[in-house]
Design brief:
This protein is α+β, with helices and mostly antiparallel strands and 167 residues long. The protein has 2 domains: 2-41; 45-150, Zincin-like. 44% of the residues lie in helices and 14% in strands. It contains 5 helices and 5 strands, in the order ββααβββααα. It has helices at 20-41, 45-59, 100-115, 121-127, 133-145, and strands at 2-6, 9-13, 68-72, 80-83, 88-92. It has a 3-stranded mixed beta sheet. A two-stranded antiparallel ribbon has the order 1-2. Bound molecules: zinc ion.
Length: 167
Amino acid sequence: MSAYRDGDKTVVLVPATFSRAEEKRWVGRMLERLDARDERRRPGDDALRARALDLAARYLDRRARPASVRWVDNQQARWGSCTPEDRSIRISRRLAGMPSWVVDYVLVHELVHLVIPHHGPEFWELVRRYPKAERARGYLEGVSAAPRLDAGGSGEVEEDDDDVVGE
Ligand SMILES: [Zn+2]
């Protein structure tokens, strides 16, 4: 038995020997499993994007218009990154457990990169429209300087001075 997504459709393959009742039960079960898997893949991306749009409207006069905003698991050295060409923003899931004003700062930082790619004075001028920008930077510096206590337990100290780097 298998199930997969095909565009907007979901295809569930069941043995021809199944009765209607068995088929129905298994299709239901496979759909549940697929939904759970999808949810694991990208939990909270919609909420993150909504938050980014709200911040852009509040602090950046909607100048930054991200096409996609999502959580990613593969960013260990950076808190966030963005690609101005396709207006995509990626936020490290390591931030998920941190205070919301810290996540908001990283979102604002990346949103501003959609307008200004480098870290020049005009970049920081826009970032500081977010009132807790300095506080959040201090918070993240503290986290970066502390030995890593999570899974790996390697105790390594990250060396990036400005973890939020746009690409
Ligand atoms: Zn940056």
